[in-house]
Design a protein that fits this description.
The protein is an alpha/beta fold. It folds into 2 domains: 260 residues, FAD/NAD(P)-binding domain (3-Layer(bba) Sandwich), CATH 3.50.50; 109 residues, Rossmann fold. Helix content is 28%, strand content 21%. The strands form 5 sheets. Strands 1, 2, 11, 12, 13, 14 and 17 form a 7-stranded mixed β-sheet that branches. The chain has a 4-stranded parallel β-sheet with strand order 8-7-9-10, sandwiched between helices. Helix 7 links the parallel strand 9 and strand 10. Helix 1 packs parallel to helix 10. The longest helix has 19 residues.
Length: 410
């Protein structure tokens, strides 16, 4: 079957590429083994939160990005520019109308409480978490659940200098509870009625009530508002350990919208081989044992992620790209892949695909390799998204603009 655009990878960069192409009226296929890092890491949208820029909210993020691009022209942001990054973020935001929105405070980063008892700078915050940016100097009650080991309310209370209550769920069937189970229960009015009653008994002089980020998958703002009504205090979410329910909400919203627009999803599938002839990808093969199916397209977006997503693979000698065997910017000697300390900025994190200004992959001489293939997301070279706190921003911006480049070529 033939498509205008095939997107390889179902993380945030791949989803943004598919959204951009289908909104331009293109026929799109998106292929992915899973939903990328969304279900693991994404709670809010990080754009740029390096320590030197993550202090008091005195400058807009746009100003920070402009300076960052001047200082780091080879960074993925440097190929886009601050104005176009803002356009890509607006495209993402358009997918989340009220009541569940992603918001920035005063156009700058905000410090959001984490499940580790710290604060981290982030840019676009889901509306269920926004009140968490105001907890300093306020009296907070944190809610935990017995048997739920991905959120330690009492330890967080010690860090945030507040109180915590751990509710017993002895009437439920599971001895151990995970995030998806709690999110499903939260969508049941009887469950909310019970915990609302229990929490209201525990209130002393608190001003806010913090929950782990499990307030439902389908209607988190409806769940939050109902709990606020029952408890009588404002409620907010705090990110918990993986899986990330907020990340799953993002994926759910993208999938619903893209299917409505006619995008074909191949979830749980992997691209086994790409066929290249004269600097063009002619087709790809998708393995779904025992079937092996070929698909063709006018253009392709490679958004396969890094090691966890299968976009990069490593053996004892080298790191390689999994589908097109594209050249990588990397440290050739394995002994130099990692720093001496666990918390070092490990060189292996900088390994990725170098591209030209239009996101075509290039060789060591800077020559474009594949004229109908564009690269997006964290598999790109010249960034350190962990230290920069830029993961989602890179994924959104490069997915959006790589698709734009592909569309313009048709």
């Amino acid at each position: 079957m033939h498509y205008d655009l095939i997107v390889i990878g179902m993380g945030l960069s791949g989803l943004m590429a598919a959204k951009t192409a289908t909104e331009a009226g293109r026929k799109v296929l998106i292929i992915g083994k899973g939903i990328g890092g969304l279900a693991l890491f994404s709670n809010s949208i990080d754009v740029l939160g390096i320590p030197s820029l993550a202090g008091p909210e005195t400058k807009s993020l746009k100003d920070d990005l402009s300076q960052w691009i001047l200082d780091h022209p080879n960074h993925p942001y440097g190929k886009i520019g601050a104005e176009k990054i803002e356009e890509a973020l607006s495209s993402f935001n358009a997918l989340f109308p009220p009541p569940y929105t992603f918001q920035a405070k005063n156009g700058s980063n905000s410090l959001l409480p984490t499940g580790a008892g710290t604060f981290r700078p982030t840019y676009l915050i889901p509306s269920t978490m926004m009140k968490g940016t105001t907890i300093k100097n306020k009296k907070i009650l944190l809610i935990g659940f017995k048997g739920y080991k991905d959120f330690y309310a009492q330890q967080l209370a010690d860090s945030f200098l507040c109180r915590a209550v751990t509710l017993s769920l002895s009437g439920m069937s599971q001895a151990e509870i995970n995030s998806t189970t709690l999110a499903r229960w939260m969508e049941q009015p009887t469950f909310r009625e019970w915990i609302g009653t229990e929490i209201k008994k525990q209130i002393l002089n608190e001003e806010l009530v913090g929950f782990p980020a499990v307030l439902g998958l389908k209607d988190p703002m409806g769940v939050r508002k109902d709990l606020e009504k029952r408890i009588g205090l404002p409620v907010f979410e705090i990110p918990a350990l993986p899986p990330s329910i907020p990340g799953m909400r993002i994926f759910r919203r993208f999938k619903e919208r893209l299917i409505q627009r006619g995008v074909t999803f191949l979830l749980g599938h992997s691209v086994s081989k790409a066929y290249v002839n004269r600097e063009r990808c002619e087709r790809i093969e998708v393995l779904n044992p025992p079937l092996l199916t070929s698909y063709t397209a006018d253009c392709y977006i490679l958004a396969s992620g890094r090691f966890m997503g299968g976009g990069l693979k490593a053996d004892r000698e080298k790191i390689s790209e999994s589908i097109f065997n594209l050249p990588l910017s990397q440290y050739e000697v394995r002994e130099k892949w990692f720093g001496d300390s666990f918390f070092d900025d490990h060189p292996v994190h900088g390994v990725g695909i170098s591209t030209d200004s239009t996101f075509h992959p290039i060789d060591e001489s800077g020559r474009p390799i594949l004229e109908n293939v564009w690269v997006a997301g964290t598999i790109l070279a010249h960034h350190h998204f962990i230290q920069e706190k830029s993961r989602e921003g890179i994924e959104i911006a490069t997915g959006y603009w790589a698709a734009k480049q592909g569309i313009d070529s048709l």
